[in-house]
Amino acid sequence: MSQPSQNVSLRITEDDLNELESRVGLDGARNRSDVIRLAIQQFLQGQPLLPDMDTVRITIGRANKMHLGQLYELQGISPETACHEGLKLYIANAIEQLAELTEKFESALEVSRAVTIRREEYHE
């Protein structure tokens, strides 16, 4: 049995209304109200637990969606956990690449400075 609900009125643009209408029939939504309720639930459930945290939404294709579902079914790893682990790995790799690049620039700069002829009039 569903919980009692309150009637709420809101104004939206015609473009938003058209997008809303296009979602009817998807994800179990039978009408506009279902689409709006689902959107509100997703919004509220996706809020970060702490004030300094943020939420990121990503769009995935069918193959990734299927693989994430299989990963959850086989190993119990949620899509959120998989994405979080992937993001940590991506950041670690990016930091490592930046460190290597910085090291190369510093090395090239040292070589350049070593071969530069110093002119006496620029030094005290």
Return Rg in Å.
27 Å
Count of domains: 2
Cα separation of the termini? 88 Å
Give the CA-based shape: elongated
Q: How many distinct beta strands?
A: 0
Structural class: mainly alpha
Describe this structure in words.
With 124 residues, this protein is mostly helical. It folds into two domains: 1-55; 57-124. It contains four helices and no strands. It has helices at residues 14-23, 32-45, 62-75, 79-115. The longest helix has 37 residues, at 79-115. The chain is elongated, with a radius of gyration of 27 Å. The N and C termini lie far apart (88 Å). The relative contact order is 0.04. The mean pLDDT is 87.
In short:
This protein has 4 helices and no strands. The protein has 124 residues and is mainly α.
Question: Which SSEs are present, and which pair or pack?
Answer:
Elements: H1 14-23, H2 32-45, H3 62-75, H4 79-115
Give a quick set of tags describing it.
0% strand, mainly alpha, 124 residues, 2 domains
